Amino acid sequence: MRTRHVVVLDDDPEMRRNLRTLLEEDGFRVTLAGEGEALLAMVPKHHPDLVILELVLPGMPGLEVLRRLQEQGRIPAIVVSSKGSEIDRIVGLEMGADDYLAKPFSHRELLARAHAVLRRSEHECPCDVFEFDGFRLDMTCRDVAIDDELIELTSLEFDLLACLASSPRQVFSREMLLDRVWGSSSEWQTAATVSEHVHRLRRKIERDPRNPRWIQTMRGAGYRFVP
Description:
CATH topology of the largest domain: Rossmann fold
Distance between the termini: 37 Å
Number of helices: 8
Shape: globular
Number of strands: 11
Oligomer: single chain
CATH superfamily of the largest domain: Response regulator
CATH architecture of the largest domain: 3-Layer(aba) Sandwich
Strand order of the largest sheet: 2-1-3-4-5
């Protein structure tokens, strides 16, 4: 198996060094960047497998860096930020982050989440395309279209939708989705993480998110995709 390449973006030199040591000891190849412009310049050349970034940066704001990363091919990204409020986490995930950790964080937790994000990004489904009554999900191109209109999803939103759509009508508990989509558990993340992502996904794919057509809530049990 090839060595996975991680780019760390943080304006704190000590944090960059600490993360490099942590990740290299776990077998990753690591490149460091102190500004968003530097990271975006190296992405087309080095094609990193994962980006770990702070949001509070000199020059280009971290949220703008996240947005531009998505434009370069939905590169998996984990935010490790000094901004840890609920609204900061929600905005970071909305802008395309696959996961969000507030500083200070556990080194073991960061490594666990990094491996989980990489597993999701490399997951291959045996079926390439799912089509149901105007809904089309292409696993190869990672595209979703409803009534021939392409829907822009983050990498994590796509993985969540693909998990549900690949098993129509099966009910998935929030804990099952944490395991299958996030590669995590309630030890690391709360079930509310799943609820937040389902809410955002519905806003993008449902005509009426309050009365969802595709992703239904099974009260007390979880969620299911209805073809």
